[in-house]
Amino acid sequence: DQQVKQNSPSLSVQEGRISILNCDYTNSMFDYFLWYKKYPAEGPTFLISISSIKDKNEDGRFTVFLNKSAKHLSLHIVPSQPGDSAVYFCAAVLTGANSKLTFGKGITLSVRP
Amino acid sequence: EAQVTQNPRYLITVTGKKLTVTCSQNMNHEYMSWYRQDPGLGLRQIYYSMNVEVTDKGDVPEGYKVSRKEKRNFPLILESPSPNQTSLYFCASRPWGSVYNSPLHFGNGTRLTVT
């Protein structure tokens, strides 16, 4: 049973427009959420995170929104650039001794020049 | 340069032939972990270690072993590999403490094929 779901496998947007990547989770005990970005032949790299006590976190062109009641978060990229083309993983954490990341399947974003 | 280094990057082997994938980090991180990535399943945790000589199972530990004899190294051992262990493997590390301030750093991955 997948606790973190990224239901859209891919997204294509025009350069300069907004990219919105969605993520849903089922475990209401998750208290921290992260987005990782992955290029081919490389490991995932941390992009942005948000605590469950917040509903928005912004870092440059990247903003993550959290809707706890809907168990939904989204990553907004504005404006999108061709270099943003990658696989984006949503991850959730139940903080504790392990603080294991539970990942979604990932979304492949393509930004067209 | 701060990094997590995995070797080899690519490995093709046969069923039953023991293999080890090495992982080393130069950031003095206490916490290390192994994940596997499979199509349609995302990344799943295999084992983790909170410090030297302290290891524990993740979500999918069957068929794997790990050891943590030194802080910097966390090898993944497949004693008798099987085709269902064909996957992309990632090692990761972070400092001990709050995950809020110290997200995981990942290596570049090891693509393993077991025939």
Number of E-state strands of chain A: 11
Which structural class do the helices and strands of chain A define?
mainly beta
Residue windows where pLDDT falls under 50 for at least 5 positions of chain A: none
* Uncertain stretches of 5 or more adjacent residues of chain B: none
Helix content of chain A: under 10%
Account of the protein in words:
The complex is a heterodimer of chains A (113) and B (115). By secondary structure, chain A is mainly beta. Chain A is 0% helix and 54% strand. Chain A is built from no helices and 11 strands. Chain A has strands spanning 4-5, 10-14, 19-25, 32-38, 45-51, 56-59, 62-67, 72-77, 86-93, 101-103, 107-112. In chain A, strands 2, 4, 5, 9, 10 and 11 form a 6-stranded mixed beta sheet that branches. A 5-stranded antiparallel beta sheet of chain A has the order 1-3-8-7-6, with no helix packed on it. The radius of gyration of chain A is 13 Å and the shape is globular. Chain A starts with a strand and ends with a strand. The model of chain A has no long low-confidence stretch (mean pLDDT 94). Chain B has 115 residues and is mainly beta. Chain B contains no helices and 11 strands. Chain B has strands at 4-7, 10-13, 19-25, 31-38, 42-51, 54-57, 65-66, 76-78, 87-94, 105-106, 110-114. In chain B, the strands form 2 sheets. In chain B, strands 2, 4, 5, 6, 9, 10 and 11 form a 7-stranded mixed beta sheet that branches. A 4-stranded antiparallel beta sheet of chain B has the order 1-3-8-7, with no helix packed on it. In chain B, a hairpin with a 2-residue loop joins strand 5 (42-51) and strand 6 (54-57). The radius of gyration of chain B is 13 Å and the shape is globular. The model of chain B has no long low-confidence stretch (mean pLDDT 94). At the A-B interface, strand 4 and strand 5 of A face strand 5 and strand 10 of B.
